[in-house]
Design goal:
Blueprint (H helix, E strand, L loop, with lengths): L2 H45 L2 H34 L2 H35 L6 H30 L4 E4 L4 E4 L2 H5 L2 H31 L4 H36 L1 H8 L5 E2 L3 E7 L12 E7 L2 H7 L5 E2 L2 H6 L3 E3 L5 E3 L3 H24 L2 H14 L18 H30 L6 H27 L4 E3 L3 E2 H4 L5 H32 L4
Antiparallel strand pairs: 1-2, 3-6, 4-5, 7-8, 9-10
Helix pairs in contact: 1-2, 1-4, 1-6, 1-14, 1-16, 2-3, 2-7, 2-16, 3-4, 4-6, 6-7, 6-14, 7-8, 7-13, 8-13, 11-12, 13-14
């Protein structure tokens, strides 16, 4: 692979990662805060207590600032599919575009319509109508997330499609397979509930600041109760769906699982690494030890990945070498081919596509059918044909491994934190200075946890834009790398300014507090 293409791919990846990670700073707070706002307004409508109305209006102001910046970064993210990844957009646009179109037409317009009523409808519409608008705003935000996550899940586990050799594009054959693939369902639940968890900690952290400053005590206490209950329930779902994520990754993306665990050589009854320090000198295929130090739970990885404590979990070297057996989704025991074999089959599939087009031009029907049959038979490894060597199949193991540990360890800390806060606030013992300061410190930590989760999901699936179907080198737009470098710098400055603006406005609103 020439250096110019490597530079182009790396800068295009970096730009997309920059945009996505900035965008993801705002999305999870939107997802969770809208639901908590709706709960608070429901309590206001049911009780008539003006305190709940004031709390609702205050958190709406925080939501509004966050929502506006989130929309701005999200629009740029979608444009990048066309500018930086045009080959990807051409190859799978018929499938990937469908959920994005539904998200824009249905969910975003629902949000845009009812958010106006939510913000400007106080005193102009009935209480129940306003409450309905608030709930529909929350529903719209979460439906929007559903379609985005369905699209992302399809990239990680392409289902419900068929390749059309006449157009050289993948076409959707089953919308329901795309929507209800096991990976899509689990990713939606895991991602949205992690957003709820983040929003709950933000609410608790801001409320703790008020209690520390001895301001708005009643609203702060009520918000902490709502946040701790909401956060505890959400974190339980995050843990449950996290287990489901590990299972789905083991079935669909074994290389990602190997990177998450720093597992180079597979074993039966594999243990789950709780904490470890990777050997930076370790490379696939060498004899170096993978870890300087590690603590693991015996047999837990085998159980998480295959629901069998004695199951064989392939490592990086096993996936490259092949030869191990596993039971596929149809319950059939199959032997995994080597990466070199997959590359060979992928190149034969690409050659079959070329032969099909040549036979079509020549009007040779029998040759067309033979080439199409070969293409269909070997399309499973079509994307491997664009790879030059097996080493490109290995993602960044240290980044994936440590990001996964950060996500899981902090998730466990948050679970215990919610229990502690709920217990203390219900016993009127939330005034402890150490607990209030801890609650504030949790806010940046939950954002780190959220970003780490996306790093695991996206870095772990490299080098694929679409798992096993289209590598990044084939998906990228053939433009000059310098153009991407320039736009990367522009976006980095722009997004940083937007973030600073958002934080300054939000801090100002927090200092102003609720209008009582």
């Amino acid at each position: 692979m020439d250096e110019a293409l490597i530079s182009l791919v790396n800068w295009s990846r970096a730009q997309f990662a920059l945009t996505a990670m900035y965008h993801w700073l705002f999305v999870p707070l939107t997802l969770g805060l809208t639901v908590m706002i709706a709960f608070m307004e429901t309590l206001y409508v049911r009780t008539g207590d003006e305190g709940w109305k004031n709390a609702t209006k205050f958190w709406m102001r925080i939501f509004g600032v966050n929502f506006a910046i989130g929309v701005a970064t999200g629009l740029i993210l979608e444009f990048e599919f066309g500018t930086n990844w045009s080959n990807y957009s051409w190859f799978v646009g018929d499938i990937f575009g469908a959920p994005l179109a539904i998200e824009g037409i249905m969910a975003f317009f629902m949000e845009a319509t009812f958010i106006a009523v939510m913000f400007f409808g106080w005193g102009k519409v009935s209480k129940k109508f306003h409450l309905t608008a608030t709930w529909l705003t929350a529903l719209g935000a979460n439906i929007s997330a559903l379609w985005i996550l369905v699209a992302n899940s399809w990239m990680q586990y392409p289902a419900g499609m068929a390749f059309n050799p006449d157009t050289a594009r993948n076409e959707m054959v089953s919308f329901w397979e795309v929507l209800f693939s096991p990976l899509a369902v689990n990713k939606f639940l895991h991602t949205t509930t992690s957003g709820y968890m983040l929003a709950a900690i933000v609410v608790i952290g801001i409320s703790a600041w008020y209690m520390l400053k001895k301001r708005h005590q009643l609203m702060a206490k009520r918000s902490i109760i709502i946040g701790s209950v909401f956060g505890l329930v959400s974190t339980c779902f995050v843990i449950f769906t996290g287990d489901g994520s590990a299972f789905q990754v083991a079935q669909k993306q074994p290389m990602k699982l190997a990177a998450m665990e720093g597992l180079y050589d597979g074993t039966e009854g594999a243990g789950l690494v709780g904490f470890g320090i990777l050997n930076s000198k370790k490379k696939p295929g060498d004899t170096e030890e993978a870890f300087h130090f590690k603590m693991e739970v015996p047999r837990m990885l085998s159980w998480l990945g295959y629901r069998d404590a004695n199951a064989f979990v392939p490592g990086v070297n096993d996936i490259i070498k092949g030869g191990y057996t596993y039971v596929n989704a149809e319950g059939v025991t199959v032997t995994e081919p080597s990466a070199e074999e997959k590359i060979r089959i992928g190149r034969e599939a690409i050659a079959a596509l070329k032969a099909y087009n040549e036979a079509k031009k020549a009007g040779e029907v029998e040759a067309m059918e033979a080439a199409r049959a070969e293409l269909n038979q070997k399309f499973q490894y079509f994307g491997y044909g664009y790879l030059n060597d097996t080493s490109s199949l290995v993602p960044n193991v240290p980044l994936t491994f440590y990001s996964f540990r950060i996500m899981v360890i902090l998730g466990g800390v948050f679970f215990l934190f919610f229990i502690l806060v709920l217990w203390r606030v219900l016993r009127n013992r939330m005034q402890s200075r150490w607990l209030l300061i801890t609650s504030i410190i949790m806010v940046p930590l939950v954002y780190i946890c959220s970003q780490a989760g996306w790093i695991v999901a996206e870095v772990g699936r490299q080098p694929w834009a679409i798992q096993d179907v289209l590598p990044l080198t084939a998906a990228v737009s053939r433009i000059d790398a310098s153009a991407v470098q320039i736009t990367f710098a522009i976006f980095a400055v722009l997004f940083t300014l937007l973030l600073v603006a958002e934080l300054s406005i939000m801090f100002k609103q927090i200092k102003l507090g609720p209008k009582e």
